[in-house]
Write a structure and sequence with these properties.
homodimer; alpha/beta; Aspartate Aminotransferase, domain 1; Aspartate Aminotransferase, domain 2; seven-stranded mixed β-sheet; three-stranded antiparallel β-sheet; 41% helix; 13% strand; globular
Chain lengths: 387, 387
């Protein structure tokens, strides 16, 4: 149980930073008040939430009161889509998204279609980029919302988001972005980029699971997803996850402070891993754009073998990697993202994602480089597809 | 800061039990995997979730796979109402509830009305009981859902829930109950009572904030509130709050083991507090039923003075109490529950709730008894209403 694990699954979740853990502890022990209570214990919790909100806001350069805490990015995405769609329904019923969005975007949109909304799903090119011309053509007078992710969680491609937002602004359409894969990892400046609304979570930036946020620019209308008490200024009911919020605040603070340093270091590890694998193993394809990609993303498709088998043999060596989409991994479907960028199903099945984070070292990269070729060789020898 | 606090606000939230805190720690440190990941770290988390689900199910005597984890009782209530209403819309559009439900029931129902549903809000008597005849009369062929809380979080009245559910069953209508105030505190046996669906949370039973559950009986249909990945068997998307779930499991386990012992002890403290206050202070009314009430609930209305002022002076003495509804405390509205049981607004404004829990002692009760009369006297002297 206590073996050292090489954790290359940082796109699924991250190890909580020690300083995050430390600030959470008092709120799991003596500081247990309900932030809505008037007494000291309640007000201590309320103050801690507001101080955390400030750090979370600073990370993305928003105002404090543009941050709404939720329980996960999926909730933030659902809240954004349902809430904005319903709030702007009198203005129009058309929504635009892309083919490589997370299921917490695509599945609510399927439901919204059943409720009378019209949805355009933009295709992407072989790198995962949407085409600005496609976007321009898709916008009609009936368009009320565009939701395009900042970077893709599977293949790591970072969209040309500023240009995309610009087109949306010019058309006067509300723009939402799923920034789960980017906030805390690469700069997300909502003012500079011009986002109206973004989703992001703590667990992607060395914070705890169970806490996330929605940024909503002042003036943009939304209907709440969870109705009840007046928490989060009436936009998200429910007793606050105080310890989670405090952890998120600290995670946002250190992410802001260390982002550029971590970015450079992780990117070097990523590039070494990519280069060595492509050099030592044949019939393997790097998915996503070679440079305009998340600093820790190494998404590869190996011919003739199954990604799941690679993951299990890596696990045996103490290396944690993933098939790309943790949320879909129990669905036993091949990735809609790979399908959208034109990877044929048989190759898509041979995909794995190494996602590197700030705790990874060059020694860990070397270990993967040393064991992966023999794992692939072993599996290919067993494969009926490999002649 | 480090003064000893007498915490009589257990209806708002509770102190995390030490054993709950201990089981959560590994999942905030080394055991940080995403339960959807195939590697050991992911599978450790997945197993911990299933083991917790078992304890949560055992607490309410349900099957394990009838438990869905959510982020708070408000989410569970919204999920139940929206999800069941939408799933049964082809059968009918009428929903019945009571006037003293939590806002996370009443506010979603207001929205559902806008979407074409018809809602009957049953009145309650001066104790907070609904009338079975009213319920029977309200049920029509168009009725698809009845949502009545097990016990009221403010005035503590425990409904005659078995009789209510029986009426509902006979009419073949799906029955949901907000059991936030009862699960873990008094027995909630879903099979014995006959519930189809209940909401409850960890933070009410010495577990962490940010984690709750929905029980949904097999065969009852529901549409998810949060769509995306296939977590929680496709009914609640989003990466699981693993540490929270593990804490909930342990809280449910100890609640089940210690419930009857805690119940008796807390009830004695409650009755002493009620009796002494009624004896030593005049012009004060106990709200709710004198005996059929939550073991820790002491809800009182004092003539001529403001509940908020009492809370602030108690706070000065190191005693944490509440105005009754923490979720509404920032809304600056007087309680809809007190209004429903016929407490006039001027008396309702003088209300406070002492909610006792398992950590409270007889010495703490004595302390409140010793300081409260002079606080009330002082405030009454200042009150222009008190002649």
């Amino acid at each position: 149980m206590k073996k050292e694990i090489i954790f290359f699954d940082n796109a699924s979740t991250t190890r909580i930073d020690n300083s995050v853990f430390e600030v959470m502890l008092p709120f799991l022990k003596d500081n247990y008040g309900n932030p809505s209570s008037l007494h000291d214990l309640g007000q201590n919790a309320a103050e801690a939430i507001e101080s955390s909100r400030h750090y979370v806001a600073k990370l993305i350069n928003s105002e404090d009161d543009e941050i709404y805490f939720t329980s996960c990015s999926s909730e933030s995405n659902n809240m954004a889509l349902w809430g904005i769609a319903k709030a702007y329904r009198d203005k129009g019923t058309h929504i635009i998204t892309s083919a490589i969005e997370h299921y917490s975007i695509l599945n609510p949109l399927k439901e919204l279609k059943k409720e009378g909304f019209e949805v355009t799903v933009l295709p992407v090119d072989s790198y995962g980029f949407i085409n600005l011309k496609d976007l321009k053509k898709a916008i009609t007078k009936n368009t009320i919302l565009i939701s395009i992710m900042h970077a893709n969680n599977e293949i790591g491609t970072i969209q040309n988001i500023k240009e995309i937002v610009k087109v949306s602004k010019e058309a006067g359409v509300v723009f939402h972005s799923d920034c789960t894969a980017t906030a805390g990892i690469i700069p997300v400046d909502v003012k500079e980029i011009g986002f109206d609304c973004i989703s992001f979570s703590a667990q992607q930036m060395y914070g705890p699971k169970g806490i996330a946020a929605l940024f909503l620019k002042k003036g943009i209308k939304i209907k709440p997803l969870i109705l009840g008490g007046v928490q989060e200024r009436g936009r998200r009911a429910g007793t606050e996850n105080v310890a989670g919020i405090v952890g998120f605040g600290q995670a946002a603070k250190i992410a802001k402070d260390n982002m550029s340093k971590d970015f450079e270091r992780i990117k070097k590890l990523r590039d070494k891993l990519i280069n060595e694998i492509l050099k030592t193993i044949n019939k393997v394809k790097l998915n996503g754009h070679p440079t305009q990609r998340l600093p820790g993303n190494v998404h590869l498709s190996f011919e003739y073998i199954e990604g799941e088998s690679i993951i299990l043999l890596l696990n045996y060596e103490g290396i944690a990697a993933s098939s790309g989409s943790s949320c879909a991994s129990h669905a036993l479907k091949s990735s809609h993202v790979l399908s959208a960028i034109g990877v044929p199903p048989e190759l898509a099945n041979g995909s794995i994602l190494f996602s590197l984070g700030k705790y990874n070292t060059i020694e860990e990269v070397d270990k993967v480089i040393s064991v992966l070729p023999s794992i692939v060789e072993k599996l290919r020898k067993m494969s009926p597809l490999c002649k």
